[in-house]
Amino acid sequence: MAGLLRRLGAFLLLAVHMAGQAGAQQEEDVGALMEALRFGETVAIMREEAIRHGEDLGRDMLPDVSAKRWRAEVARLHDRDRMQELVESSFARALSDADTGAMLSFFRSDLGREVVSLELAARRAFLDPEAEAAARADWHDKRAAEAPIVARIEALIAAAELVERNVTGALNSNLMFYRGLADGGALEMTRDEMLAEVWSQDDTLRAETRDWLGAFLLTAYRPLEPAELEAYITFYRSRPGQQLDTALFAAFNRMYEELSYLTGRAVARFMRSRKL
Question: Does the residue 243 lie in any domain?
Answer without folding.
Answer: yes
